[in-house]
From TrEMBL:
Domain Flagellar hook protein FlgE/F/G-like D1: 113-175
Organism whose genome encodes this protein: Salinibacillus aidingensis
Similarity-based family: Belongs to the flagella basal body rod proteins family.
Protein name: Flagellar hook-basal body complex protein FlhO
NCBIfam families hit by this protein: FlgEFG_subfam
């Protein structure tokens, strides 16, 4: 019976964790460039239950013969294995702001690849983002809304001085009489090698494969649209449906837990009572 408690409780904990992920997706449905998280669940190892007893033969010298009967398998619960971002393309929204930039994915050599802007994080290292809702700081540098510098393809900060600059479709900034290529990189499997950080930034794992310059990646085409932002790729209708389903699954596990608790109460306070 105690195994049933653990199985039902693990189901409730898993559904609660999944609900947290879905709620975060819904909360960021209007965040530019946000990529929805997807959850994967996995069952704990199953156990094969077998009843072992013995059978006594009716002979002069009693002989006990082992008698094993297969009952079946017992599932020991479920857990949320990992959270994986979906790097699918989001819709584009026109803003008319020259500092807003959106990447439109073109041809990719595989379905798991994705493109990113390169950003200087607060530690001075390189992070990546799809949120092109940029602005200009007091020194004339192109930065994210959280104040992180946007980098060119050489890893340098980009100074445009004001918002009177143009960005070509291939991601080259025309400002101050010069041309500066935006740092846009391609990663063939970002869901595996990138982890989510703060402020819409993604960080490369220590043992992850480094992304490459998108302009030098074979079979990769893209466009940068100025005056537009990429919307979140969260499907709000689907997310609401999944949130309701998750809530119902949590309730079902809760009812199972209550049934086990009631059975345990009867076993302890009624069947096991000394008379």
């Amino acid at each position: 019976m105690l195994r049933g408690f653990y199985t039902a409780a693990s189901g409730m904990m898993t559904q609660q964790s999944r609900q947290d992920v879905l709620s975060n997706n819904m909360a960021n449905a209007l965040t530019p460039g946000y990529k929805a998280d997807q959850t994967t669940m996995r069952a704990f190892p199953e156990m094969l239950i077998e009843r072992t007893d013995s059978k006594q033969l009716p002979v002069h010298h009693s002989v006990n013969i082992p008698n094993n009967k297969l009952i079946g398998s017992l599932n020991t619960g479920v857990y949320m294995q990992e959270t994986i971002p979906d790097f699918g393309q989001g819709d584009l929204k026109e803003t008319g702001m020259s500092t807003d930039l959106a990447i439109w994915n073109g041809q990719m050599p595989d379905d798991t690849g994705s493109l990113f802007y390169t950003i200087q994080n607060q530690d001075g290292g390189t992070s990546y983002t799809r949120n092109g809702n940029f602005t200009i700081d007091a020194n004339g540098f192109l930065v994210t809304n959280s104040g992180h510098y946007v980098l060119d393809e050489g890893g340098n900060q980009i100074q445009v001085n004001n918002d009177e600059f143009n960005v070509t479709r291939n991601g080259e900034i025309q400002a101050n009489g010069g041309v500066t290529p935006l740092g846009i990189v391609y990663h063939p499997n970002a869901a595996q090698d990138f982890t989510k950080g703060n402020n819409d930034l993604y960080n490369l794992e220590e043992d992850g494969e480094a992304p490459v310059n998108a302009r030098n990646a074979g079979g990769v085409t893209f466009e940068v649209r100025q005056g537009m932002i990429e919307r979140s790729n969260v499907d709000t209708t689907q997310t609401r449906t999944e949130m309701l389903q998750t809530y119902r699954n949590f309730e079902a596990n809760q009812q199972v837990l209550k049934a086990y608790d009631k059975s345990m109460d009867m076993a302890v306070n009624q069947i096991g009572r000394l008379r």
